[in-house]
Each structure stands twice: as C-alpha cells, then as structure tokens.
C-alpha cells in the first residue's frame, strides 16, 4: 500500500467525503419524508392515492438507480432546466431510496392493530392526525432495523453520483487515480472513507434499537 497517496491527496479525498456526506444527508431526509408520504398513500382510503402510491413504488423499485439519476440529470436538461450533477444525483438517490422506505413503513403501519386507528377516529381525530400522532410513531419504531439498512445502502449508493460528475467521494477518487495510476491503493482508501460513514451508522442503529426494546 502506498500511503503517500492518502497523505498527498488527503484534501482531495476530504472534498469528496464532504460531498458524499452532504448528498447522503439531503437524500436521507428527502427519502424519509417522501417514503413516509407514499406509505400513507398506499394504505389510505382514497383510491387514486393508493393507485399512485402503488405505481410509484413498483416503478421506482424495479428500475436501476442509475436510470433514476439519469432521468433527473437529462430530463430537466431536455426541458432547458438543467440540473448540476450533485443536485440531480441527490434527487435521484432520494427518490430511489424512498420507494424502499415506503414499503418498510407501510409494513410497520399494517402491523399496528386496526383498533387503534378506529379508537382515534372515534375520539374526534382526523385521518391525518391519527397517522401523525398515533400510527406513524409506533410504525417507525417497529421498522427501525430495515430503515437503518436502507440508510446505510443510501450512503453506499451515493457513489452513483460520480457518473454525472456529482462531486462525491468516488468522483474525486477517479481524479486521484488519474493522477497517480495507483488504482488498487486509491480505491482501498476510498473504501475506508465509506466504512468511516457506514460502520458508526450501523452501530448507532443497533444501539437505538436496543434502547427502544428496553423502553417498550
């Protein structure tokens, strides 16, 4: 291993690391919000929203992530509203991940006894209030492990941004590789940077899960 690559190009690696962190955080928030909304659509009483939610999940889950990113990169450009690689890649990553989060949260909602919803509605709460205050907090607690796995996958999937020059870790690693021609060493160091993100997150999810088990 040539550690001079890490020391000489540490600033370049860190620039890509920051890009990956920012993109992942934005996509995480966006995918969770969108996935929760789609999950509620899928189990709601309005048929049009159920159809939309089902179509959304089935379409997005069954096409490659790269294609989703291309849709947001080349689509707006065709309409003369171009997005930069970072923005298009982050949106594509959020949309793609939201379809998996929607399924996880829907499973959590379905596991909540229907009597709780009926009791809340009979107490005067609206459907939205019932979801926000009664059902979703319990459902999300139940599906923390799969949600954690999806967030870890999101970080790893963020490497797709390099395809559209998204200024992520892999993008800058390609620059380092071009300068040094040390392909194996360069990407081993990149793997370490990704592990610095995913391992603490994986540990944090397990700790949070154990705390919730003790609490409930």
UniProtKB/TrEMBL annotation:
Q: Which UniProt keywords apply?
A: Amino-acid transport, Cell membrane, Membrane, Transmembrane, Transmembrane helix, Transport
Secretion signal span: none
**Entry's transmembrane regions:** 20-41, 53-73, 85-105, 151-172, 184-205
Which CDD domains does the record associate with it?
A: TM_PBP2
Q: How does it sit in the membrane?
A: Multi-pass membrane protein
**A cellular component term (GO) from this record?**
ATP-binding cassette (ABC) transporter complex
Q: Which SUPFAM superfamilies match?
A: MetI-like
A Gene Ontology biological process in which this protein takes part is: amino acid transport
One of the entry's Gene Ontology molecular-function terms is: transmembrane transporter activity
Task: Using the record's annotation, list all stretches that form the ABC transmembrane type-1 domain.
Answer: 17-205
Location(s), subcellular: Cell membrane
Similarity comment: family membership = Belongs to the binding-protein-dependent transport system permease family.
Question: Any idea what this protein is called?
Answer: ABC transporter permease subunit
Origin species, per record, is Paenibacillus macerans
């Amino acid at each position: 291993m040539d550690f001079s690559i890490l020391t000489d190009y540490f600033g370049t690696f860190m620039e890509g690391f920051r890009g990956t962190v920012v993109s992942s955080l934005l996509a995480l928030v966006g995918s969770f919000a969108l996935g929760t909304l789609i999950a509620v659509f899928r189990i709601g009483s309005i048929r049009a929203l159920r159809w939309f939610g089902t179509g959304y999940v089935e379409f997005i889950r069954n096409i490659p992530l790269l294609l989703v990113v291309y849709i947001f990169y080349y689509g707006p450009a065709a309409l003369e509203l171009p997005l930069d690689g970072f923005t298009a890649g982050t949106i594509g990553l959020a949309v793609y991940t939201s379809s998996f989060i929607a399924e996880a949260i829907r499973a959590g909602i379905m596991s909540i006894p229907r009597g709780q919803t009926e009791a809340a509605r009979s107490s005067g709460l609206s459907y939205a209030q019932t979801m926000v205050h009664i059902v979703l907090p319990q459902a999300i607690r139940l599906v923390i492990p799969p949600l954690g796995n999806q967030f870890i996958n999101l970080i790893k999937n963020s490497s797709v941004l390099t395809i559209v020059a998204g200024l992520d870790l892999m993008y800058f690693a390609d620059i380092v590789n071009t300068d040094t021609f040390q392909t194996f060493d360069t990407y081993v160091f990149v793997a370490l940077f990704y592990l610095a993100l995913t391992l603490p997150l994986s540990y944090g999810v397990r700790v949070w899960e154990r705390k919730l088990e003790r609490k409930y």
